[in-house]
């Protein structure tokens, strides 16, 4: 006999990328930043730790909101912070989508969106990207039960981006809030924060896990118009960001020179990866994230993934219905990428894949 809600009992649950606990791996499977964060982060965390942890943290993460507002060109009351951007996605889903209602997402994309709908007891409607990774017109069509739409931009696994003009048009047409998930946007050529000012249906979520090298800290935020933020605050946990993460995140976003330098290094390596994989024979769309996505019809990429893992290199193998299977490779350090690409060439030359 199960006392669990039927929706929870029936769902498979979200499965994060492999996180090896023993041994040394070249880890290119979860889009972490290969470089240490700004030195200011460690200093800020140590200073905050020296102040003690016996008191509750600031429930609004005010110091972060004030500095982030300056960086983004908004006021602090346009920002709400969370325990990573996944916490933000959960809060937004809980706020807008009820039992039996619909959440819309593109596919292939971040599979957590579907899991969040299942937890709510709601339905998820998956709309396939066009062949060029643009949004089809049906993504913007209305529906009586549609309560929320998600768009990862840049997208995972493809690394591609939907232009701002198309996002603005989709938001105008949609009858519901439209969250643009910008987890990887610091590696892209444009972002959608200014669209939030133009349309209160648009929300933009961000994370410090990728571009600020703080995946282990867990800190994210959402930008929305203040009356929307006021509603989301009712749903979030009282103290969803701890004192150390607030201190570290504030120091990270304050160091914009570190971000610019890190972005340049990642983009340089990303281009080298893309060029080499295309030379080998992969089809690789132009990525605006910190990873590349490669397909190779006629080759067994599951076997390639297994070969790399046996050689202690982790990448992400993904196979979506009606799409060619592919491997997603995070942008690592130069030596890490050299080792990965060499193993890929070896596997293909030996007919392992």
Quick recap of the structure?
This protein has 353 residues and is of the alpha/beta class. It has helices at 6-10, 39-50, 62-72, 85-96, 112-120, 164-173, 193-198, 226-233, 243-254, 256-280, 301-310, 334-349; strands at residues 26-27, 79-82, 102-107, 123-128, 146-152, 178-181, 202-207, 220-223, 291-295, 313-314, 316-318, 326-330. The chain folds into two domains: 6-30 and 257-349, Aspartate Aminotransferase, domain 1 (Alpha-Beta Complex); 39-254, Type I PLP-dependent aspartate aminotransferase-like (Major domain) (Aspartate Aminotransferase, domain 2, 3-Layer(aba) Sandwich), CATH 3.40.640.10.
Protein model, in words:
- It is a single chain.
- The protein has 353 residues and is of the alpha/beta class.
- It folds into 2 domains: 6-30 and 257-349, Alpha-Beta Complex (Aspartate Aminotransferase, domain 1), CATH 3.90.1150.10; 39-254, Type I PLP-dependent aspartate aminotransferase-like (Major domain) (Aspartate Aminotransferase, domain 2, 3-Layer(aba) Sandwich).
- It is 39% helix and 15% strand.
- The longest helix has 25 residues, at 256-280.
Structure keywords:
2 domains, Aspartate Aminotransferase, domain 1, 353 residues, seven-stranded mixed beta sheet, Aspartate Aminotransferase, domain 2, Histidinol-phosphate aminotransferase, single chain, alpha/beta, Aminotrans_II_pyridoxalP_BS
Number of helices: 12
Task: Report the strand count.
Answer: 12
- How many structural domains? 2
Q: Tell me what the CATH architecture of the largest domain is.
A: 3-Layer(aba) Sandwich
Quaternary structure type: single chain
The average pLDDT score comes to 95
**Class from helix and strand fractions:** alpha/beta
CATH third-level topology of the largest domain: Aspartate Aminotransferase, domain 2
SSE ordering: HEHHEHEHEEHEHEEHHHEHEEEH
- Tell me the strand percentage band: 15-25%
Family: Belongs to the class-II pyridoxal-phosphate-dependent aminotransferase family. Histidinol-phosphate aminotransferase subfamily.
Pathway: Amino-acid biosynthesis; L-histidine biosynthesis; L-histidine from 5-phospho-alpha-D-ribose 1-diphosphate: step 7/9
Enzyme class: transferase
Domain Aminotransferase class I/classII large: 24-336
């Amino acid at each position: 006999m199960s006392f669990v809600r039927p929706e929870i009992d029936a769902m498979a649950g979200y499965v994060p990328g492999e996180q090896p606990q023993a041994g040394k791996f070249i880890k290119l499977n979860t889009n972490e930043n290969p470089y240490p964060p700004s030195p200011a982060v460690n200093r800020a965390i140590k200073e905050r730790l020296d102040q003690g942890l016996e008191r509750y943290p600031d429930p609004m993460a005010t110091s972060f909101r004030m500095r982030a507002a300056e960086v983004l060109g908004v006021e602090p009351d346009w920002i709400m912070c969370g325990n990573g951007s996944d916490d933000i996605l959960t809060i937004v889903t809980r706020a807008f989508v009820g039992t039996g209602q619909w959440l819309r997402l593109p596919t292939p994309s971040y599979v957590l969106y579907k899991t969040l709908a299942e937890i709510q007891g709601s339905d998820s409607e998956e709309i396939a990207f066009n062949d060029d990774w643009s949004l089809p017109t049906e993504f913007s069509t209305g529906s009586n039960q549609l309560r929320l739409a998600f768009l990862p931009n840049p997208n995972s696994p493809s690394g591609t981006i939907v232009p701002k003009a198309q996002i603005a048009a989709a938001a105008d047409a949609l009858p519901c809030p439209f969250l643009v998930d910008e987890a990887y946007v610091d590696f892209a050529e444009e972002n959608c924060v200014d669209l939030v000012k133009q349309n209160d249906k648009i929300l933009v979520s961000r994370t410090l896990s990728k571009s600020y090298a703080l995946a282990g800290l867990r800190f994210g935020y959402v930008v929305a118009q203040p009356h929307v933020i006021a509603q989301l605050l009712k749903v979030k946990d009282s103290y969803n960001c701890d004192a150390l993460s607030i201190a570290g995140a504030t120091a990270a976003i304050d160091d914009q020179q570190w971000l610019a330098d890190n972005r340049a290094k990642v983009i340089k390596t990303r281009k080298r990866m893309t060029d080499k994989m295309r030379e080998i024979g992969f089809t690789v769309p132009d990525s605006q994230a910190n990873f590349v996505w490669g397909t190779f019809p006629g080759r067994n990429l599951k076997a390639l993934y297994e070969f790399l893992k046996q050689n202690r290199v982790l990448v992400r193998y993904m196979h979506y219905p009606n799409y060619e299977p592919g491997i997603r490779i995070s942008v690592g350090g130069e030596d890490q990428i050299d080792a990965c690409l060499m193993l890929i060439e070896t596997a293909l030359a030996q007919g392992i894949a």
